[in-house]
Design a protein that fits this description.
This protein has 428 residues and is of the alpha+beta class. The protein has a domain at 5-50 and 106-181 and 294-366: FAD/NAD(P)-binding domain (3-Layer(bba) Sandwich), CATH 3.50.50. Helices cover 30% and strands 28% of the residues. It has helices spanning 13-24, 49-57, 62-66, 105-119, 170-175, 274-279, 308-311, 320-338, 342-364, 370-379, 392-406, 410-415, and strands spanning 5-9, 28-33, 44-47, 69-71, 74-79, 84-89, 101-104, 125-127, 129-136, 142-148, 153-158, 160-163, 183-196, 204-209, 213-219, 230-239, 253-255, 268-269, 272-273, 284-291, 299-300, 303-305. The strands form five sheets. An eight-stranded mixed beta sheet has the order 6-5-14-15-16-13-20-17. It has a six-stranded mixed beta sheet with strand order 8-2-1-12-22-21. The chain has a three-stranded antiparallel beta sheet with strand order 3-7-4.
């Protein structure tokens, strides 16, 4: 018996994780991706333990993830004067049953793509095909409207359509035609990678600076055994008081480091030379820190949104890609229970839309970097002993609250049953 077809708009991390999940539970699917060929684009991202758990359950274990990244050992915040504000172990060293990984986004993306092609076949991803909208049909099916890279158009009909087509989602625009424009609060990020020696534990995620100007630094490769050098991912960020001075939302361009390195003059410590790290990059990319206002539903009958199409959020909590993976697995679990039906999309929407919408706003308020805001509010950013500014108990409670909101509170996650039980399949 042929199972109903699920169409997926977008072949990014969320779309491919969805396709792998649907294949695992016995659902036919096809991914439509706008680009003509997939390439390992981007720099570093973090995969939280809750997402790594799901990847392990998909068969992507440590050996696979070690090829595209490195397990994270520590998360730390450091003030601009070089004084530590907060630090905690991460992943296995924190007591999670699963590691946290810092990975090269493009290499991780290609890992998902090649895994899907190996398991299902290259025909499972149709490249050069952009879904531009949809039409709901009287019989309950849905038709995807597709523009092809060769200038032609076509239509494909299936039981369900999943919009994993990113922050500029055409499906979201169809579902919510009156949505506000993309939101930008004034922060500009410059991203790049540099070969350098890892700092602190050797696999630390470090946020350095203030709530208005900061660096994020972490390795995304294992150190070379001969040189000790690793590929260090960095994000340099400055927030402008008047967003109108940079009144563009959605730009992404290559720039020389000389465009922004001056913002970090003097950020030199005995354990890190920030200007040298920035100048050591082969390439740098400038883009705004943007998100979208939450919507009240990610579902329209047989259509649902997923990943950035559903919940584009500031990267301050390092959980954009992680949440897309959780979306895919939650959707799969709903189909195991409800079948390939709009009822499954309704269950998925009910489980995630409300909580994740709150997380969007929490990240807009600086997410876990909110501790930097507290330091600025209480002492202007300068301190000798952090305990006199924010007591240890308050710092720990702040971080625990964020992890609970983001779905990776350690005790809860460790005790949770698998999202999709081993061997679970949809009912025929």
């Amino acid at each position: 018996m042929t199972t109903p077809l699920v169409m997926i708009a977008g072949g990014g991390i969320g779309g491919l994780a969805t396709a792998l999940t649907l294949h695992q539970i016995g659902v036919r699917c096809v991914v439509f991706e706008a680009v003509r060929s997939l390439k390992p684009l981007g720099v570093g991202i973090n995969l939280q333990p809750n997402a790594v758990r799901e990847l392990f359950d998909l068969g992507l274990g440590e050996a696979a993830l070690d090829r595209v990244g490195v397990p994270a050992r520590e998360w730390a915040l450091v003030g601009q004067n070089g004084q530590e504000i907060y630090a905690e172990p991460r992943g296995l060293e924190a007591g999670y049953r699963w590691p946290q990984y810092a990975v090269h986004r493009g290499q991780f993306h290609m890992l998902l793509y090649h895994t899907l092609c190996d398991q299902v076949g290259a025909q499972s991803v149709r490249l050069g095909a952009r879904v531009t909208g949809y039409r709901k049909n009287p019989d309950g099916t849905v038709t995807a409207l597709i523009d092809h890279a060769d200038g032609t158009t076509s239509e494909e009909t299936g039981a369900l359509l999943i919009g994993a087509d990113g922050i500029h989602s055409a499906l979201r625009a169809t579902m919510h035609p009156d949505q506000p424009p993309i939101h930008w609060g004034g922060a500009v990020m410059w991203r790049g990678t540099t070969l350098a020696k890892p700092i602190r534990t050797g696999s630390s995620f470090v946020g350095l600076g203030t709530n208005r100007q900061r660096m994020v630094i972490y390795p995304i490769s294992h150190p070379d055994p001969d040189t000790g050098l690793a590929l260090i991912n960095w994000i340099a960020e400055v927030t402008y008081d008047d967003p109108a001075t940079q009144a563009r939302t959605g730009w992404f361009r290559e720039v020389p480091t000389s465009d922004f390195v001056h913002h970090f003059d003097g950020w030199t410590y005995d354990w890190l030379d920030v200007p040298a790290l920035l100048r050591g990059a082969d390439i740098a990319y400038e883009n705004p820190m943007i998100d979208r206002d939450p919507v009240d539903t990610w579902r329209d009958g047989p259509v649902a949104l997923l990943g950035d199409a559903a919940h584009a959020m500031y990267p301050t909590g390092s959980n954009g890609a992680s949440q897309a993976i959780i979306d895919a697995r939650t959707l799969g679990a709903a189909m195991v229970t409800e079948g390939v039906t709009p009822a499954a999309l309704a269950a998925y929407d009910a489980a995630l839309c409300g909580p994740v919408s709150k997380l969007i706003l929490r990240n807009r308020g600086a997410g876990p970097f909110g501790l930097l805001n507290l330091v600025d509010e209480r002492c202007g950013g300068a301190f000798d002993e952090i305990d006199t500014v924010i007591p240890p108990e308050e710092r720990a409670a702040f971080m625990a609250g964020y992890k609970a909101a983001a779905g990776f509170a350690i005790d809860t996650l460790n005790a949770a049953a698998p999202t999709i039980a081993p061997g679970a399949r949809i009912r025929p």
